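Predict structure. Chain length: 305.
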Amino acid sequence: MSDKPWGGRFKESTSLAVEAYTESISFDSALYAQDIAGSQAHARMLGRQGVISAEEADRLIEGLDQVKREIEEGSFPWKQELEDVHMNIETRLTQIVGEVGKKLHTGRSRNDQVCLDFRLFVSDQLREWMRLVRALVRVFVRRAEENRDVLLPGCTHMQPAQPVSLAQHLLAYAWMLRRDAERMADCERRVRVSPLGAAALAGTTYALNPAMVAEELGMYGAFDNSMDAVADRDFALEALFCGSVCMGHLSRFCEEIIWWANPLFGYITLSDKHSTGSSIMPQKKNPDVAEIMRGKTGRVYGNLF
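Prediction complete.
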């Protein structure tokens, strides 16, 4: 007899090799906060719609609060045999609150649950990226204000071409990054749309209220087509594109730093706090931070591809 939550018709337990091969908990445990927030909104909606009682909804919400505390305190018992973050949390919830824990999944499939978690996670990441990018834009603007009268060669083909102010050069990157933040904001409005209520692909016969869940989670609305809601991940691809463009701009500026710090150019001197040295050539000061930043850009491009 299968011990899986989905194993009602199965007569044998899953092979250990299959469990190890198909588990996703080593990746999707990062979605725990979004999974719990989505489940609490779902439970609250079920209670308000009369699908479960208000008391049952309250017990589910309180139990999920305890699960979140355990995860953040490091005492949560993650189990590979439970496959993913969703079944791990639901199983632990049922241990805490009893049989009512099994009602949390009423009217919900792992399909729309996974997609909700993923959308919330990507949206949260985009908001953090925007915060950091905007902060960096402000740094470029401040440094430009401080260096209006500092001149340096403006180059084409890596050859001196026309004199420019350092302020103009720095503000070029401020404008690039501002567009990056605008792209992220535009993308985030498409990402933060709730798929909950789409169920596996064609909805459910329960009297759910997807708009209520979307509003509680601070989303911009609910899905328009249930099949599209659970079948497409274009929102993740678009977010990765936005991140890749931004990384390209950051990598470009880091290459400037690398050249400017080279004694053959001698435009800048890097601080010791933000440099590394050589194990065999003590005269060297290496722009490792800028070089590693450029290396990380390749990883983001790889994720996009």
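Summary: Strands lie at 151-156, 159-165.
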